[in-house]
Write a structure and sequence with these properties.
The complex is a heterodimer. By secondary structure, chain A is of the alpha+beta class. Helix content of chain A is 21%, strand content 35%. Chain B is an alpha/beta fold. The chains are: A alpha+beta, B alpha/beta.
Chain lengths: 125, 496
């Protein structure tokens, strides 16, 4: 399994073989506040790198979640429908959003590693 | 706590269904005389489910809940981006004149010449104030106006065989802008703001190509700032073969001073219920006329009013028009009120209203700037935008300030919008408020800011304490919404 990588839009991605798991970061959930609804994509949907893949709604706002890399949606976290609070409680675990079949593994190279993401958050907020 | 649950003359009021006294009624009707049943077995088997109540109970119920309604008629309502301003009573008097109040949209045109003249005069005022040659009056509200504007733009592109697929929208736009473009079938491409809170012209240029149908820009923008590179942006989009849609929701800040036509605008909706004082927010329908440039005018929707030697006529079909978006002619009641506002103010009065709105917002920013943090360097336009930087490490959030403001007797400002500003507080005092009233608001905000900085976070987390309801659990309400009252389960049918 690869190390977790991040986007500047505060998504994370972790790859195991050719399947990637995607969610939003702890910083993102904290900024959003209590998550009340998550709109997940249909299985089989093709997403593009940086394209809209899901919507997360909190008491403050609704925000898009973008796909960190291109791929096909092979699974979504159905449990979030009944328990959106998981995104707040376990952003890197039980609060995952979707699994993608990776189209081009080289797209991962352009993403931030943990240190670079932490530096990005510290600098811009 | 009182015995009754009432707080002085502020009454605790249960739902009307919870006050049901079965069999009680406001009128004493004789029971229908028995006769043959002609319902064929389709008669109700269960009760209708309406509460049984006496007339005074019904009157008190609705009076009590209406007294819980905070409105611009009750006090300051600084809800940024919504422009909650006074609705002059003269407008209400004029709209009730029998020749205007008793019209029907299907009346023969020769019997409504005065009303059509009024519509034509309103169109003249809007075109003159905007410096644009045409206006479509029928859109029913701001977002409907946006839809009308983009449908006109699409019709113009299609007429020259140039189907385009993309609309560029700044990140700080009203949510309705990207929604409108998407509803029209366009791909929405966001443009970031620069560090001055305005359109990033370089980023805009980079996204501009032959696929762009339109730029949708709000001016003054949602950060309460004038887009000072608007003319360059208009030139650029025109050179790329696209059109410039301006969201005119904030026209109230510039009316009488700036003509959008001079900025290169091709289409702009005007919220009559903001700039021209017609009621909204539960008080009445919106109205969103769209002014159009010469390039777009031929594609405007029907119907529209023309004047020739036979008098005023309604044009109901026009081969170039993209169609119609309302069954009838638009919100006539709002047309009357808006024209009443325009004519009673005059051109100079409209200009002064805009200037006073801007002055009030800048006064708020100047008086709060040392304790709270303006999101961008002023001067601002009609809205003062603060971020939550000044509250950092106090344990007090933007939401807490809004809740505490309720105890001070104010409707809170807009919070957490625009999204591009962290912990945003968007304050729009409008020209309605006197200096005394703005001073009172400023005093309340200063006291709250000082209290937050003094470390009294607990006070804020308890707020509001004086409102009919305390802090609501918004998270549970959103996660487990209870959308309608349901009767309690009937007692077990022991009697049978």
């Amino acid at each position: 399994m690869s190390a977790r990588r991040y986007t500047k839009d505060h998504e994370w991605i972790i790859v195991d073989g050719d399947i990637a798991t995607v969610g939003i970061t702890d910083f993102a959930q904290e900024q959003l506040g209590d998550v009340v609804f998550v709109d997940l994509p249909a299985i089989g949907k093709e997403v593009t790198k940086g394209g809209e893949a899901a919507v997360v709604e909190s008491v403050k706002a609704a925000s898009e979640v973008y796909a960190p890399i291109a791929g096909t949606v092979v699974a979504v976290n159905d449990g979030l429908a009944g328990e959106p609070a998981k995104v707040n409680a376990e952003p890197f675990g039980g609060g995952w959003f979707m699994k993608l079949k990776v189209k081009d593994p080289s797209e991962l190279d352009g993403l931030l590693d943990e240190a670079a993401y932490r530096a990005f958050v510290a600098e811009s907020h | 706590m009182t015995t009754t649950g009432h707080r002085g003359l502020d009454h605790e009021e249960p739902l009307i269904f919870e006050q049901d006294s079965p069999g009680l009624s406001g009128v004493d009707l004789p029971l229908p005389k028995g006769g043959p049943d002609r319902l064929g077995g389709l008669g109700r088997s269960r009760p209708l489910g309406l509460p049984g109540m006496a007339e005074p109970q019904v009157v008190r119920h609705f009076t009590r809940i209406s007294q819980r309604n905070y409105a611009i008629d009750a006090g300051m309502y600084p809800l940024g981006s919504c422009t909650m301003k006074h609705n002059p009573r003269l407008n209400e008097k004029v709209v009730r004149l029998p020749g205007l109040g008793d019209l029907h949209p299907l009346q023969p045109v020769r019997t409504v010449q005065g009303a059509l003249r009024l519509v034509d005069t309103l169109a003249h005022w809007l075109k003159t104030l905007c410096g644009m040659p045409a206006v479509a009056l029928s859109p029913a509200a701001g977002a409907h106006g946006e839809l009308c504007g983009l449908m006109t733009i699409r019709a113009a592109h299609e007429a020259r065989g140039d189907a385009r697929r993309k609309v560029l929208v700044p990140e700080s736009a009203h949510g309705t802008n990207p929604a409108t473009a998407a509803l029209c079938g366009y791909d929405v491409d966001p443009i970031p703001a620069n560090d001055r809170g305005r359109l990033d012209l370089a980023a805009f240029k980079a996204k501009l190509d032959g696929s762009v149908a339109a730029l949708m820009l709000t001016n003054p923008n949602t950060c309460g700032l004038f887009e000072d590179q608007v003319i360059e942006a208009a030139d650029l989009v025109h050179r790329a073969g696209g059109y410039f849609y301006c969201d005119g929701a904030n026209f109230n800040a510039i009316v009488g001073r700036v003509r959008p036509g001079d900025l290169g605008v091709d289409a702009m909706h005007i919220n009559l219920h903001k700039t021209f004082s017609t009621p909204h927010g539960g008080g009445g329908p919106g109205s969103g006329p769209v002014v159009l440039s010469a390039a777009l005018a031929p594609y405007a929707p029907v119907p529209y009013v023309v004047h020739d030697k036979g008098g005023f006529r309604l044009i109901e079909s026009d081969p170039k028009a993209f169609g119609r978006i309302r069954a009838f002619h638009g919100q006539m009641g709002m047309f009357v009120r808006a024209l009443s506002y325009m004519m009673s103010h005059g051109g100079d009065g409209l200009r002064q209203a805009a200037e006073d709105a801007v002055l009030n917002a800048n006064y708020v920013m100047a008086r709060l700037g040392d304790l709270l943090s303006p999101a961008f360097l002023g001067p601002c336009m009609h809205e003062c935008l603060l971020d939550d930087h000044a509250l950092k490490d106090t344990g007090v959030t933007t939401l807490d300030i809004a809740k505490a403001l309720i105890d001070e007797g104010f409707h809170p400002m807009t919070v957490y919008f625009p999204l591009v500003v962290h912990g945003a507080m968007l304050i729009e005092p409008t020209e309605t408020e006197s200096k005394a009233s703005v001073d009172q608001f400023i005093a309340a905000m200063r006291a709250l800011a000082l209290r937050a900085k003094s470390g009294d976070a607990e006070f804020f987390h308890e707020s509001p304490t004086l409102a009919p309801r305390r802090r609501l659990d918004e998270t549970s309400a959103a996660r487990h919404p209870v959308l309608r009252w349901r009767p309690p389960a009937p007692p077990a049918a022991a009697a049978e």
